[in-house]
Design brief:
transmembrane helix, three-stranded antiparallel β-sheet, disordered C terminus, two-stranded antiparallel ribbon, membrane, transmembrane, 1 helix, alpha+beta
Length: 85
Amino acid sequence: MIKLDILTAVSLYIFFSVIAILVIWVFFGPKQRKNIKDISEKKHIWHCSICDHTYVDSRHEDISQCPRCNSYIEKDEGGDIEDDN
């Protein structure tokens, strides 16, 4: 049987936990960043002229409905703000 004092056991537990989190972050981090980039490229930012609410509608339609006041906004009215990012 291996004898460990409490300080060594806690130190090993913290060390291996940090290593496990680092490994998970390295393997799954770049994929998550790529998915966020894909979503941000597809977004359309709309601005309601009735209630002055700005929101994202990713359905790429010519007409969008404001989630706050339920009014309809046409793309030709300037409701869609193109994002340069």
